[in-house]
């Protein structure tokens, strides 16, 4: 009979743990500001990727000219 109690306590403990994890995942602040900041981060990442691709392209062209 005590086993049923253990299961119930484990369920409650797990539910509390899941709720704590969910709290940490929620984003804070104004949604519009969050969208703008997320967009800016993506722009920066895209710019860095474009610069890296351009550098690789230039290195490839230089390598071909040396042949």
Automatic annotation (TrEMBL):
Domain Small EDRK-rich factor-like N-terminal: 1-36
Ranges for region Disordered: 1-67
Transmembrane domains' residue ranges: none
InterPro entries according to UniProt: SERF-like_N
Basic and acidic residues bias (residue ranges): 1-11, 27-43, 50-67
Protein name: Protein SNM1
Organism: Kluyveromyces marxianus (Yeast)
